[in-house]
């Protein structure tokens, strides 16, 4: 599991006085920084080798401005050229939202999907939900 | 079908030099304004009676800053207390991304799910994909 | 004057139930697209030759979700290597916010400030406030 | 001085491969959370008593995705009904951007500007730049 603490920003609320749903993709993206660094430790944009092809979100309860949020991120599945992540947003010990993201590994020269090298698979496996 | 023209903003690009994936939830939300007005013509926030519970996105091809984007929005399904929307993002006649959103109708006093009145269902039905 | 119509997005509101102040930099940026195209018609990022060095905003009245907003953009001053823009946000014929932005022209190879060529100055001059 | 650590998000970059300028208003806003709590400890939106009337930003150097950013916030001036804040964004011990924000204190019932009570002035004074 990867964890990331988030301090909500006033502009991330909306007229319903809770965190607006378009904020969650940004929070979950921030929580994926350590995963990008597994594949690209220097964050060299010319060698970028991951692309997000699917993302989904379920909203379980309202998230508020007042309190810190914890994003918990797990690896769900590892395929040949892609892997799936699960995200959870927790606030005051209540699970507020979940997310699922599918990321494809690319050959950084051809920009085509490519088998994920075993060394990266091993690092991802450390973060399976049951692990 | 509802359509909404979008002019991409420079800050909606990312270091990969295309529109960043967290922008699409915001574009699709803008495209839903006419749907909110079906249920709440004055956009009176105290009477707000819709809540988004699920959203998902598939990225088919890169979207660029240079050209206008058209968001096409359809009704996919209408249930008793909820309905599902489909969004498509088109740029230069190429479909770049799709989205699916589930919205629950609430009683604006109790804030509990409530049967969607027939008058609203009739308006939604005008926007089925095959219609 | 350049004009840009904006349809506010639900997520651009905040818990005070008006458009949140961090939205205005994004709206004004969208309104500058035609100015970027004067200097870089193909929006070729490798040849980008403008950089924003200062921006400021004054909030005069609340902006609401309900109605379209018009951004009016003028050229305020043209110096040797930089120019200043004025932005105004109008909603229902009321001026809601103003902005001022300073942009420096760069040599696209050296990335150093460079004298603005006369052909660009002439195009900018068409958009002076009094013009 | 108030300090706030920021972990940049991939979507906060732009096609120039640095943090886009519209991100800074959001980061500085997050850094003001402790100031809002001085005036409104419960963040009760119905009693909100501060309004931002001016904000400005100077960009000194590029900010990158790779490294944490520290936002340092100071009180610059305290007037009768308003006060001015200074923000600085630092990354790897280099100052990248500055901001100045003017906030007006409102009577939470009338929503009109009101003399800042001495107890709040005393708290603000602890954060003068020279302090």
Structure notes:
Four copies of one chain form a homotetramer. The first copy, chain A, has three helices and five strands, in the order βααββββα. By secondary structure, chain A is α+β, with helices and mostly antiparallel strands. In chain A, strands 1-3-4-5-2 form a five-stranded antiparallel sheet. The longest helix of chain A is centred in the N-terminal third of the chain and has 8 residues, at 24-31. In chain A, 34% of the residues are buried. The model of chain A has no long low-confidence stretch (mean pLDDT 95). The C-D interface holds C 15-16, 21-22, 25-26, 29, 45, 48, 51-59 and D 15-16, 21-22, 25-26, 29, 45, 48, 51-59.
Average predicted local confidence, pLDDT of chain A:
95
Number of helices of chain A: 3
Residues in helices of chain A, as a percent range: 10-25%
Strand order of the largest sheet of chain A: 1-3-4-5-2
Question: What's the quick description here?
Answer:
Chain A has helices at 24-31, 33-39, 118-125, and strands spanning 2-6, 50-59, 69-78, 82-91, 94-105. Chain A has 131 residues and is of the alpha+beta class.
Question: What tags apply to this protein structure?
Answer:
131 residues, homotetramer, five-stranded antiparallel beta sheet, 18% helix, elongated, 3 helices, alpha+beta
